[in-house]
Amino acid sequence: MEWYIYAFGAAIFASGAAIVQKKTLNKEHALEFSALLATINFLFTFILLPSTNFNIGMKKYLLIYLGSWLGAVAFLYV
Asked: DSSP string spanning 3-60?
């Protein structure tokens, strides 16, 4: 498959998730929502952990770290 199909799919899912988050935060407390979302993310990550390959370069680890840091700050602003 071409990369732009994956990018388009990711954009669709990300926009859908943002809409659901906004609607949920109108009714739910932000801290409870953040805790539940982090727990669900951890469970998905924990399930996929055994099939993960950690043989990547240091530059890629730095990119992943910076991306996750920026994502965490962005989530705080949301």
From this structure: HHHHHHHHHHHHHHHHHHHHHHHTTS-HHHHHHHHHHHHHHHHHHHGGG------HHH
